[in-house]
Amino acid sequence: MNNMLELTAISKQYPGGVQAVDQVSLTLKAGELGVLVGPSGCGKTTTLRMIAGLEKPDQGTIRIRGQAVDGQRPQDRDAAMMFQSSALFPWLSVAENLAFGLAKKNLDRRTHRSQIEAIARQLQLEDLLERKARTLSGGQRQRVALGRALLKEAAVLLMDEPLSSLDRQLRLQLQDEILRLCRQRGQTTLLVTHDQSEALNLADRLVVMNQGRIEQNDIPQRIVAQPATLFAAQFIGERPINLWTVRSAAPQSIFQPSQIVWPDGADTVVIGVRPQQLRARRLNSASGSEEAALMGEVVIERFHWTGAQRFGSGRLGGSPVEFSLPEGVNSQIGDRVVLSADASALHFFDPETGRRLS
Ligand code: ATP
Fold first, then answer.
1. pLDDT single digits (tens) 194-226
2. 36 pLDDT exceeds 70?
3. Is 201 a domain residue?
4. Which of 151, 180, 219, 308 sits at 20 to 30 Å (Cα–Cα) from 278?
5. For ligand 1, is residue 210 a contact (CB within 6 Å)?
6. How far apart are the CA of 46 and the centre of ligand 1, in A?
7. Interval between CA 345 and ligand 1 midpoint (Å)
């Protein structure tokens, strides 16, 4: 039995009728780092609070190390929680703040001290141990809060937007530290964020939530490559996915129908193509592979950059479209380009249910 955390169909409705969490089931194995991601209000924090025992589910069961924890008080659960703005005691030193996390309170002072020093070393807080918490920077405070949560040595570490108050550079740095520490300790962790790039950086297992429900729960690569729903396709991805609603009886001229493997029985579908997989080439250049599903001609209206990659955007079939501009395509605003994508890069969704069709 190496399931450290197991949620079985947990639900929570708040007074006033908000169904914050709706039949959520989820399992984390020992040492796994799970990330709950989704838009504001989708139920991420409520899920974490139910695991920590701060909120009682209306239905469903929560197990930690295989034991149902339904009747247990927060302090009796084998879980540590780190909040977005984990409050430190401002007038106490870093060492004293860390000591609040210590798992075994009855150890002698020397053992206490060595545990605190060990975690301080791992989090680069050694020189700050005697400083008052109120004199720390935001990033240093987050480190202390992380150290305090880790010192609890709980089976499950719960982190609610632990990095959202930090600037980008610090966030990236602390993301690395969280990863390193969780790996080193084999710490089972469930982290909440609304930032999809943070989710992709951290997750062994990514859980996309929307309106209290899980849209997809899988390894990050598969969510990017094979989104299970339209929502997951739109929420995860460095640039917004392109979408067209197309009827099989009258496919729009932008698609080369003979090259599209139409899902069985579908009448109308939403076709999604990620900008990374939609390549532009100059109008008169030789075509790419024979399998490419041709998407038509576009006038470049804007450029977008992500890192070293360049994207263009314009309109195609009445919808906005974004596409990659491979190196060597020296296009300018106003140029016409031809777009193509491999047939395998096309995602099909049911327009009614939003579910993936093939
Ligand atoms: P965010 O990313 O903004 O923190 P979230 O995904 O963590 O959002 P929750 O905080 O779990 O979402 O909230 C889910 C829903 O439940 C929201 O509609 C919220 O307004 C509602 N809600 C949360 N706490 C309460 C409460 N104590 N009483 C009533 N409604 C609540």
1. 888 899 999 999 999 999 999 999 999 999 999
2. yes
3. yes
4. 219
5. no
6. 6
7. 36
